[in-house]
UniProtKB/TrEMBL annotation:
InterPro entries: AA-Vitamin_Transporters, EamA_dom, EmrE-like. The keyword Transmembrane helix applies. It is a multi-pass membrane protein. This is EamA family transporter. PANTHER family: EAMA DOMAIN-CONTAINING PROTEIN (PTHR32322:SF2), INNER MEMBRANE TRANSPORTER (PTHR32322). It comes from Azospirillum argentinense. Its main location: membrane.
């Protein structure tokens, strides 16, 4: 089902590969479960696959968006952030590890693989998840979802900084628009429901920054011969390991029984995360990374919609305007070369 390996040199004209090194940037995924794994090369889908691509885009983006309200409901039930993040990563990681074994995709435990699992797990899983679960009670589902439109912009910025991607005018304009949109959300007085939330909103921007750093790391560190499901499982379990360390360091291990306050929600979160990975891989294969990057629009729409309809959250015109400007910036980053022509 998956073909090819990540490139390590030589420019490649295929979609999803760019820059002087020819390396393919990891596609963006806004999911708190860290759906940002670089996958083996994919081709642009033929017209016959257009319906499947659209269906997968809506389904994956919708599943990602569901994570925001589910998390908020669980926290309202009294489940602390660290146990919630740990259970999600551990459960989904075990499911994916079982799938990798079924597919006969090895998950080596050599030094190179363990380092990959540790770094990727920290950047793509543990850090964004834990931050999300801490800011969610303050920002709500909608505002938490808005920041997940930023990883494509930050990924390009970091890739340019480490010289694995070459900028152009259209994409630079997209980066600038993304930051303008972010400033529209956190800057003006009255943009947030309360001025006291500015600090929490600033902390929320750690999430897309960590996801973007994880994208760049995986682009340069993908182990030779690595298989996607096996690496996804290892990354998920690596993230669970970091959260376990945080649980031990803070004494929050005693909070693990609190998962019993919302057991069905915990199981739902695990199932949604694992299912999202499976569908995400299929979308990568049939649609390619540029199309994949649009997941964020769907997830953010679901997050804002559920925040408004289910929880009565209200957002100022600055938030809606900032979100629209960020989306425009992401479009320029995704299609900047095409616009530049």
């Amino acid at each position: 089902m998956f073909r090819g390996q990540p490139l390590h040199g030589g420019a490649d004209p295929r979609p999803g590969f760019s820059g002087r090194s020819g390396r393919r940037l990891a596609p963006w995924s806004p999911d708190p479960a860290g759906l940002t794994l670089t996958l083996p090369s994919a081709t642009v889908p033929p017209a016959s696959r257009g319906a499947e691509s659209l269906a997968l885009l809506l389904l994956v983006g919708g599943l990602i968006g569901v994570i925001f309200p589910v998390t908020k409901i669980a926290q309202a039930a009294g489940v602390p952030p660290l146990p919630w993040a740990f259970s999600m990563m551990l459960g989904a990681g075990v499911i994916l590890a079982g799938m990798a074994r079924f597919k006969r995709q090895p998950m080596p435990l050599t030094g190179r693989y363990l380092r990959y699992f540790a770094v990727s797990g920290l950047l793509s899983m543990a850090l964004p998840n834990v931050v999300l679960f801490f800011v969610m009670p303050w920002l709500g589902a909608g505002l938490s979802a808005v920041v997940y439109t930023l990883p494509p912009i930050l990924t390009l910025l970091m890739a340019v900084a480490v010289r694995i991607e070459k900028p152009d005018r259209g994409r630079v304009a997209g980066i600038l628009l993304g930051f303008v949109g972010a400033l529209m959300i956190v800057g003006p007085r009255g943009s947030l429901p309360s001025p006291d939330l500015a600090g929490w909103m600033a902390l929320a921007f750690v999430m897309p920054a960590a996801v973007a750093a994880g994208n760049v790391y995986r682009t340069v560190a993908w182990p030779p011969g690595g298989q996607p499901v096996a690496l996804a499982a290892g990354t998920m379990l690596g993230g669970a390991g970091w959260v376990l360390l945080a649980l031990l360091a803070t004494g929050a291990v005693a909070d693990l029984p609190a998962l019993g306050l919302a057991p069905w929600l915990a199981l739902l979160q695990i199932a949604v995360t694992a299912l999202t990975y499976v569908l995400y891989f299929r979308l990568q294969v049939v649609a390619g990374p540029v199309y994949l990057s649009q997941i964020g629009y769907v997830a953010t729409s679901v997050g804002l919609g559920t925040g408004t309809l289910l929880f009565g959250e209200r957002y100022s015109p600055w938030v809606w305007g900032g979100a629209a400007v960020i989306v425009l910036g992401v479009l320029l980053v995704s299609f900047g070369r095409r616009f530049a022509r």
